[in-house]
Specification:
2 domains, 28% helix, alpha/beta
Amino acid sequence: MSRFNRRDFLKASAAGAASAALAGCATLPEARKPIGRVIVIGGGYGGATVAKYLRLWSQGTVEVFLIERNAEFVSCPISNLVLGGSRTMKEITHSYAKLRDYGVQVLRDEVTGIDAQKKRISLRRIQDLTYDRLVVSPGIEFMHEQIQGYDAEAQKTILHAWKAGPETAALRKQLEDMRDGGTYVLSIPVAPYRCPPGPYERASVIASYFKKAKPRSKLLILDANPDVTSKGPLFKAAWNDMYKGIIEYRGNAAVTAVDAKAKTVKTDFDTIRGDVLNVVPPQRAGDIARAAGLITANNRWCGVDWLSMESVAVKGLHVLGDATLSAPLMPKSGHMANQHAKVAAAAIIELMNGRAPSTEPMVTNTCYSYVSDREGIHVASVHRYDPAKKTLLTVPGSGGVSSARSEVEGAYAWGWAQNIWADTLG
């Protein structure tokens, strides 16, 4: 693999930024003869992006249906700031309306079955639809059953809020209602899980809220991993500098059981009571991926051909985002789902035109995290396809982490969110 230096990285970044800016104001040319239909299941960062770019890059020749259960897009990235009180649900909630300007047919419905042989999906509200290619961007499902006592009744009060939406608002209310001097317990599952730095960002911004509004309160992090899984030194420096006496971190402390009535969690060594319990369960690919036979690894994740994002289990179906069996050092992130979507869109258009997809895909990732309501940090990486290993590998010397937290990084984080929302949703 050739060396990918800073100049190359900046060139690639500049080109990507320019194409994203152009895409945001692009209009489709005059309609051409359609070459086929693609149905996209799931309107998150992966699904919404692939739907848009299939229309844009095919110059309107691919008919695209986007099937999404929810009326609006609610962003998981940035949602921790809602918990910390510095942003609102309205600020992270967006419409799908602009996708229709590209000719995407957005349907609010739920897929109940996939017949890969007949190339047909069944829906809860309307009649079956046929397709030429199917994209599944199912996100994650939570494995509550791996934690004793985390049943449907317990889930009403012990929240994970790891899918942005009603639980985000509900957890924020629990934090607001918590007495000053109370304890908030955050439990983190063993990696891989959605957004590696997300739990540590959550702890940071909630500690920032406690410091201002509930200064006698404590925050206990119970991490099933041996240590902080992403940006560890930066998070720990922030905790030491700003939240000493508020945050307590314990590694190798997997939660094995919960008791909603007693407000306790159990690890292998302790039973701990908290005023607010925020238990994030282990995760796997979403239910529709399991039903379609797309899960190939550990009964959790979907293996894909990284040249096209096509499932290795079911031909003609492409899988994006957190549901995939990640390539080495590839995070499960919104930015990465957006990148998966562009690889898939380009490949599908080639395949539908009888051509082979590119053999040199390259994707980038940036994960910003807030350590207070204003200061941020980041980690970035570049991943290039290795034909010998048939996977995406991190480009040596690319990316890296922040040298230190800063308000400038916090401003960049908010700018990143604005840009990716525009790129994903129109």
